[in-house]
Amino acid sequence: MMPSNAGESRERCTVMKSIPVIDIFAGPGGLSEGFSRYGERDWNSVLSEPLTRAPKRRESSLKFKIALSVEMDEFAHRTLRLRAFVRLLKEEGHEDDYYEALCKGEDALDDLYSKHPSAFKSADSHAWRAELGKVRSEEVDSRIRGALDGAGEWVLIGGPPCQAYSLVGRARNQGKTDYVPEEDHRHFLYREYLRIVATHQPTIFVMENVKGILSSQVDGGFIFRKILEDLGAPGRAIRNAPDRALKYRLVPVVSSATEHEQSDLFAAPRDADFVVRAEEHGIPQARHRVIIVGIRSDHAGTLPLLARRKAVSLGHVLQSPPVHAGVSDESTPWLEVVGRARSAAWLAQLDSEVRSVIHSVLDELHIPRKARGNEYILGREWESNYAPAWYGAEGHLGYLNHSTRSHMSTDLHRYLFAASWAKHHKSSPSLMDFPKLLLPKHKNARATARGDGGFADRFRVQVAGRPSTTVTSHISKDGHYYIHPTADQCRSLTVREAARLQTFPDDYFFSGPRTAQYHQVGNAVPALLAVQIAESVAGLLGR
Fold first, then answer.
1. Residue-range domains of the chain with CATH
2. What pLDDT does 169 receive?
3. What are residue 157's DSSP bridge partners?
């Protein structure tokens, strides 16, 4: 049964101040950030030049308000709660209190919360730490009903955890002798998403997951086809659903589908139509994800598709303060450890062009003014060359989460070589390009260097002239796949730099220890992609 006031709410939507959004499996809030900032300004004007027609803009005062975010991870939940709190501070004109607190460190946030108790109470209620699938359905439903507060139109966003669907995760699982896909509950967490759709009947839902879900199989069948079948008819898929006839049109946000095909309830887009390539939409990262938009079948209209845009290189956004790494395996200072490369035997194994680049780097090597960085760095002299209005909020006086890791001394030399090689060749070296004396001392690396398989790109430089490779949660393990393109910094990316590739604004603070911060960033949806999706959804709702 459709909400009784659905028709009335559609009549009111053009004068509503906001439409509530509920974000489940929220991570650190990339989707929420995009939806909450839609309507702040015309973000199309700050993105790269469109290659196709931009989504049609409609006259409407429609905005989105994050009514509830649900996340199980402790540190991601803390990030969500803080961001909800910061949104409220900005509405009240107290954002300077936020920056002043972060100057003192994350521990000072408790005092900040005490200073603004009403805002903290509201943020604490809007960011709920809960593990969907384990917490009682009655409690989930109560939270959702309270957050919606009787709203007729609302949007559900989010996506179930992707470890069971990703290609890397599946390869890892195949190596486990006792792994049974049918018994992995992560394959079926989408049913928690589905149950919420069937029970609360959002006007629109946006579901995101990894591209590997398209080829994932359980019980001999492709799980993506089952997900589409269930999401299209959630009333039939969920036992005791309030409305057995409930249906949704499932629409890609980027595809070759015509408006006629979108309007046909029974038209079935190809699986590949649901794949969004972030680098084609103004994101400085080659990130391919499946995004499904579900439109309740009683809702007319066509979803405006995302415009394709010129590629943005990572060099345009890594304009952050230069910093250097630490040394993890000896007490010798970084500058001295890196400088030893000048007399290292491996240097003689290089061709003259790359050797010349390394000598130039070493001749100019020095300790950066910001040393190893910090969780808060004052100053805005390193603005982004791309979409500065998005990355740098007005009044924001610094950079967050911009402190470096420590690396083994041998890895520092590998990073120096790899970044110098990439500067000359305009691509990242494979292990076969490494001088033999710099190869890791394990058998797999040496076999790979001989061309016998393995991970040839074990050390991957993010090349400045192109979008980065996909930022994944693996960045929390080590920095080998995320080497900074500037050789004289000789390090892996900081959390802030990874967050810039994920298009989080510079005032977005990631809570917890550095490993947890990296993990959050790697699991997120690019926020600047999310705001484009929000604009498409608003175009559908704001008729």
1. 6-312+524-541 (3.40.50.150), 314-523 (no CATH)
2. 44
3. 23, 206
